[in-house]
Amino acid sequence: MDWRIIAAAVLVLAPALTISDPYAEFVSNVQRKLQALGFDAGPINGDFDAKTQAALAQFQISTGIPASGQLDDATLAQLEVQRQ
Questions:
Q1: d(Cα 68, Cα 45) in Å, to the nearest integer?
Q2: Domain boundaries, the chain
Q3: Of 12, 20, 54, 80, which has fewest CB within 10 angstroms of its CB?
Q4: Residue pair 78/65 in contact by the 8 Å Cβ criterion
């Protein structure tokens, strides 16, 4: 079989191949909670991106937690979100 046919098939089929992120639902829960509290975490998509980190840092500042933009135990407790 010609390598060009294989390469074309890979390019056509690649978008159908998805990799499941085990933390996507956890991050989506954090994003939902931030949105509900008035912090713009961007789209609720399970991606821990710069927008989510910025909203998280703003939340941390507003609650007196050191602003790290990270999901530490103190932040999760304030958000009332549990690790999965």
A1: 21
A2: 22-79
A3: 20
A4: yes
